[in-house]
TrEMBL record:
Residue ranges that the Swiss-Prot or TrEMBL entry lists as coiled coil: 56-104
SUPFAM superfamilies with a match to the protein in the record: Hedgehog/DD-peptidase
Keyword annotations of the record: Coiled coil, Membrane, Transmembrane, Transmembrane helix
Native organism: Candidatus Liptonbacteria bacterium RIFCSPHIGHO2_01_FULL_57_28
Residue ranges crossing the lipid bilayer per the database entry: 12-35
GO MF, any single term: peptidase activity
Protein name listed in UniProt: D-alanyl-D-alanine carboxypeptidase-like core domain-containing protein
GO BP terms in the entry: proteolysis
Pfam annotation, one family: VanY
Domain D-alanyl-D-alanine carboxypeptidase-like core span(s) in chain numbering: 150-268
CDD domains in UniProt: LD-carboxypeptidase
């Protein structure tokens, strides 16, 4: 038996065992180190998770507080907006009242009164400002006629549109002073006696003194005659005059004067439109209701 060889094998076995044990010891030490690292990481993660949860709860609480504050601010703003809206509405209402009162202090209250044997205009009454009617619209261009300046544009539009429609419409009479009406009535009285009262107003009772009334005719008729009723000009007026604020003052069957198809008065577009829609005439309306339209007469 080779004892030397046997000894070497034993030595190798011992060395191998030592190596294995050393490896196992190192592995165990390394594994333990990893375990400790994992444990420490888990502890740190748990701590961070706790802090995160706490921070999250604080943020959620702050969010809730901010939402409440925002709701309160929104409610406050809403209340302020409502107050501002109401103040704005009140401001507009006051402005309208001021505008209405201002207009009422500047608009001639006589313009919508019933002057056919009802209200009286004094000899001193003269419209605020009169405008000469363009000569091309007059039946006699050599005799100037005047109309209230503030509403002359309505008359001019009516005449221009009528002519554009092929209707030869002319003006034979417009504004008349107190004295002019007195002279006219005196002449009629001499000729017709008391019968003149059926077709001619006394001075102070004529709508012509207002400066808002015209007598229409045509180049063929050339006068204020009932035959005007049979013209295309009269038909055009019946269909369209209200659009410009004009109404027929004395229709058939009225209680003041004979039928006057040539006699038209400006009362404002709003009133004229309502009278047309309701198939009424100016003198059939109560004066109190008519007065409500005064504020709109120039609109």
């Amino acid at each position: 038996m080779d004892w030397r060889a046997l000894g070497n094998k034993r030595n190798l076995a011992v060395v191998g065992g030592v190596v294995v044990l050393s490896a196992l010891a190192y592995g165990a030490t390394y594994a333990y180190g990893l375990y400790q690292d994992l444990k420490n990481t888990q502890v740190e993660l748990a701590a961070r998770t706790g802090r995160f949860s706490a921070d999250r709860d604080l943020l959620q609480q702050r969010i809730s507080e901010l939402e409440i504050e925002n709701a309160e601010i929104t409610a406050t703003l809403s209340d302020e907006q409502k107050k501002n809206l109401e103040l704005e509405r009140e401001k507009k209402r006051n402005e309208r009242k001021i505008d209405t009162l201002t207009k009422l202090t500047t608009i001639d209250p006589e313009l919508l009164k019933k002057y056919s044997k009802v209200y009286f205009l004094s000899e001193n009454y003269v419209p605020t400002k009169l405008e000469n009617i363009d000569a091309e619209f007059l039946i006699d261009p050599s005799k100037p006629l005047q109309f209230l300046d503030e509403v002359y544009g309505h008359l001019e539009d009516l005449l221009e549109d009528a002519n554009r429609a092929g209707t030869e419409l002319r003006v034979i009479s417009a504004y008349r002073s107190f004295e002019e009406q007195k002279t006219i009535k005196s002449g009629y009285r001499v000729q017709y006696g008391t019968g003149a009262n059926a077709f001619s107003a006394e001075q102070g009772y004529s709508e012509h003194q207002l400066g808002t009334t015209v007598d229409f005719t045509t180049p063929t008729i050339k006068g204020a005659y009932t035959t005007f009723e049979n013209t295309s000009a009269f038909a055009w007026l019946q269909k369209n005059a209200y659009k410009y604020g004009f109404v027929l003052s004395y229709p058939k069957g009225n209680q003041y004067y004979v039928y006057e198809p040539w006699h038209w008065r400006f009362v404002g577009e709003d009133l004229a439109d309502d009278l047309h829609d309701e198939n009424m005439h100016f003198y059939e309306m109560d004066q109190r209701d008519i007065d409500e339209y005064l504020i709109k007469i120039f609109d």
